[in-house]
Every structure is written in structure tokens, then in C-alpha cells.
Amino acid sequence: MASEESPVVAELRHVDKHFGQLHVLKDINLTIHKGEVVVVIGPSGSGKSTLCRTINRLEPIDSGEIYVGGKLLPQEGKALAKLRAEVGMVFQSFNLFAHKTILDNVTLGPRKARKQDKAAAEKEALELLDRVGIANQASKLPAQLSGGQQQRAAIARALAMHPQLMLFDEPTSALDPEMINEVLEVMVSLAAEGMTMVVVTHEMGFARRAAHRVLFMADGQILEEAPPEDFFTHPQTDRAKDFLAKILQH
Amino acid sequence: MTLLTRYLEFMANYPVFRAFWVNITLTVFSGALALILGTIAVTMRISPIPSLRAVSTFYVNVLRDIPLTVVMVAMTTVVYFSLDVDFSGQLATDFYVGVVYFGQAPETSVGMMANFYLLAIIGLGLYHSSFIAEAIRSGVNTVPLGQAEAARAVGLTFLQSARIVILPQAFRGAIAPIGNTIIALIKNTTVASVTGVAVETSATMSGMIEMGPQFIILIFLTFALGYVIIVIPVGVLTTTLSRRLAVKR
Ligand SMILES: Nc1ncnc2c1ncn2[C@@H]1O[C@H](COP(=O)(O)OP(=O)(O)OP(=O)(O)O)[C@@H](O)[C@H]1O
Ligand SMILES: [Mg+2]
Predict the structure, then answer these.
(1) Residue B81 has pLDDT above 90, yes or no
(2) What are the φ/ψ torsions at residue A31 (nearest 5 degrees)?
(3) Which of A18, A49, A222 is the pocket-test mutation for ligand 1 (most atoms within 8 Å of CB)?
């Protein structure tokens, strides 16, 4: 289980980021240990997605340092591609490769980024698809699947790279309510197996069941950082109290 | 004798079919060249390296802004006569004779004709590559940003993302504009005469009009109809393909 002694998987030091005039990340410091599940919540526009996306450098930063697996994130190029392969990412809008079958979506990374041979990659892909419950959809195109199935395929695609860390940016926000649970179940089981995860989500049930730590972000800062029970029952700041009151009304 | 039979007799003296064949082969080879160059230009245009993007933008804009006739005249006057670029070697001659005459070389100055033929292919290829590049770029705009992000997130390099994820979808989204460019190219191959390609539809048509002005309407109809017959299938094909290959999202 994650603890202060577990090795560090990712670390952000004094990270700052602007979009033009807008200061979206303000001196972010964050250490993520192996096996840890960190849930990030906060109001819209607070910088949650941006934080998530800086960790695999989909968003470059202005200043500060980000380490993944002990290595400083390199500049754009081959080395960065290699490091990105170590970080799985699951998007709100799934982003499955629209012109490729589900099976090809899952095998693409292992085959092209890791040069794994086709047969071995497909064998493992089918196991992963089975694990997320959609092995029977392997030969379909993404558009032929429901949202929940697409998101599970996207999780399988990320897992196929054996990532050290998985990033989830609101993985259930684009889903119809009846499909949210099938995706959360997969995520809970991943967490239970010790996958290191950073999850931007407003699913408090998931946070309570699976998270070790909740980060509350507002205006580009991490305002609170606490185990889920503590955070949900005793938020410290007014911003957090306000925010929780609003989302609990639903 | 009716006008039509007299015209057919007259027409038999001219290499009308060979002329059309030359324009078709010019289309095929310069189209292939344009597709290759256009794809390279687009790849540079979407690359993360600013200098490559600038080079591509410059290339596309320059070629698009120069009239085709100027490009084609320049292929002989500048490239051949001034820069001494000459393709009349054995390989080029064999290629020309093989493609245009199916291996049966006519007696006169084949080397020279081969040279003009290849210069025309290059000129047409360069000029249309800018339009192909713009067509593919419009296809790139149909590919959601998330596709490229997912490709990068999975660990693909830029070239891998472009080749495996972005360009295949961009092509499928750009079939209609690419088809339009190819149709324009088919008709534009007639400008090859200014590069020195002698057996070619517009040159042949001019020759026929000069020698048989009494048939002028029939001559026009012959060539107009010929092009319509060539272009219609291309139009039908692009419409079908763009529907069939559309990426479902
Ligand atoms: N590419 C961009 N260019 C300019 N501004 C951006 C860009 N991406 C995000 N922003 C702005 O940066 C701020 C933080 O955005 P971010 O997407 O990280 O917020 P978020 O916390 O994920 O919000 P949400 O809950 O709505 O997803 C917002 O004000 C947003 O409008
Ligand atoms: Mg967001």
C-alpha cells in the first residue's frame, strides 16, 4: 500500500503555468508515491485538467520541474515519447483512434512505441479487453461502442503500455449515468491492485472508496490535501466548504 | 461523304488517342508526385518544429501563387536551358518510350521528348502539390485534437502519430478536395505543351484546327468529350470514396 516510504513515481516542484495572461498553475508542489490514488477536485477552471496534462507534458510548463520515475521530463522528441509511454492517460472524451478497431487501438502503443510483435501484443490486448469486460467488441470500430465501452477500451489501451502511473481526466463526465459505474468499477479494481493513479473527478463515491488523498484545487492552487474522509467531513477552507455544499446539493 | 466521315478520315491523321494517353500518364505521374510532396508539406506544416512549419508555409504559398503556365514555361527555360537539368539519359528515355509508346520508339529526338515529358511531370507535380497540401490540411482540421493527444500520450513520436493516426484520418476527410485537385490536374496537363510536350491534347488540337478549320466544331467536341469521359469517373469515384471512407466519430 502507498505510504511515505513507497518509491516516488511522479513529483512536481514549483510548477507554474500561464495561458497568456491567465495564471493557471501557481507554484504547484506534489509528490505521488507508488500505489497511491490521488483524486483532484475543484471548481471548473481551477486548473485540474492542466495539472493532469502537465504530468505527461501534453501541456508544457513555464517554470518548475516535473519528474516521472525519477527522470526530469525531457523536451519534445524521442525521449519524451518514451517517457509518455510510461504514463497512461484516459481522457474525458475517450479519444480512441476513430479509424482503428478496438483491438488495434490497444495494440498500437505496444507495437509502435515498444516494438512488441503483433501476436504477443494482440494476445495481451485481448486479455486486457476481457478484463475490462469488452473482449467481444475487439473487432469493432470505436463509434460502434457505447460511451462506457469506449472508455473501458481507452483504459485497456493505456494499461497495455504497463504504465507506472495512470492519469484520468474526468473519465466519467461524458458518460450517461447508467454507464458511469461500469467505468468506475474498472478504476476501483485497478486501484485495489495497486496502480498509481491521479484522477480528476467529482465522483465522491469513487474518492471515498479508492482514493488515499484528495487534492482540492481552486484558482490554480492546491488549497487542501487530505485523506478523503477528512476532506469530505472537515473541509478546512471556505472555498472547499462552498464547493462541497454545491456539489452535494445534486 | 458526310461531314462526319470526312472528319473521321481527317482525324485519323492525328495521334488523338496517343495525345489523350500522354495527358492521362502525365496526370498519373505528376499526381503521384503531387501527393507525395503534398503529404510531406502537410507533415512539416503540422510538425512541432517552427522552422519546418515556416518552410512548408512558404513552399505552399509560393507555388500556389504562381500561375501554372509560368511554372511550366520555367521548367524548360529556367530548369532545362539555364540550370542545365537534363533528363535525356537512357533511363529517362526508356521510361518515356515505355510509357507513351509502349516500348516502340519513334525515330525522332526521343531523348529531347523524354526530357520535356519528365520536366512537365515535375512542373505539374510541384504546382499541384501545393493544392494537395491545402486539401490534406483541410482534412487534418477534421481530425479532433484529442486524436493527436491520445497518440502522443500512448508514446508515439510525432512522425508515428502523423503517419498512423492523423494523416490516415485526414486523407479520409480530404477525399473530396483531393479529388477536385486531381480533376483540375487532369485538365491542367494540357499546359504541358508549353514545356515542350508535343504529342499532347492541346498541341494536337491546335494542329488539327490549323489544318482543318472546316471541322472546328467537331474538333472542339472531340477534345471536350474526351475530357468529360476521363473526368466523370474520377468525380464519381471521389464522391463514392469520400462517403464510404468517412471516419465515423
Ligand atoms: N489551451 C488553452 N488555452 C487557453 N486557456 C486555457 C487552455 N486550456 C485551459 N485554459 C484555461 O485555463 C484554466 C484552467 O483550465 P483547466 O481545463 O485546467 O480547468 P479544469 O479545472 O480542468 O476545469 P473543468 O472542471 O471545467 O474541466 C481555465 O480558465 C481555462 O479556460
Ligand atoms: Mg478539466
Answers:
(1) no
(2) -120, 130
(3) A49
The per-residue DSSP string of A2-45 comes to --TTSPEEEEEEEEEEEETTEEEEEEEEEEEETT-EEEEE-STT
Quick: pLDDT tens for A145-161: 999 999 999 999 999 99
For chain B, the farthest-separated pair of C-alpha atoms sits apart, in whole angstroms, at 76
Distance of alpha carbon A115 from alpha carbon B194, whole angstroms: 51
Residue with CA at minimum distance from ligand 1 atom 9 = A50
CA–CA separation, A152 and B210 (whole Å): 72
Contact A141 B165 (CB under 8 A): no
Residue A102 CA: distances (Å) to CA of A128, A136, A156, B155: 11, 10, 10, 18
Degrees, nearest 5: CA angle B57-B153-B157? 50
| Contact assessment for residue A101 and residue A138, using Cβ atoms and an 8 Å cutoff | yes
Q: Are B131 and B64 in contact (CB under 8 A)?
A: yes
Segment A40-70, tens digit of pLDDT: 999 999 999 999 999 999 999 999 999 999 9
C-alpha dist (Å) from residue B92 to A122, B35, B87: 46, 21, 6
Which one of A95, A112, A114 has the shortest CB-CB distance to B146? A95
**Rounded CA gap, A156 and A75, in Å?**
27
Q: In the sheet where A221-226 sits, what is the strand order?
A: A87-90, A165-169, A197-200, A37-41, A213-218, A221-226
User: Which residue's C-alpha comes closest to atom 29 of ligand 1?
Assistant: A45
Domain residue extents for chain B: 2-245
On whether the CB atoms of residues A193 and A35 are closer than 8 A, the answer is: no
Grid look-up 512488441 returns A116
**A145 CA to chain B: closest CA distance, Å?**
11
- Nearest of A147, A146, A149, A162 to residue A113 by alpha carbon: A162
Homologous superfamily of B2-245: MetI-like (1.10.3720.10)
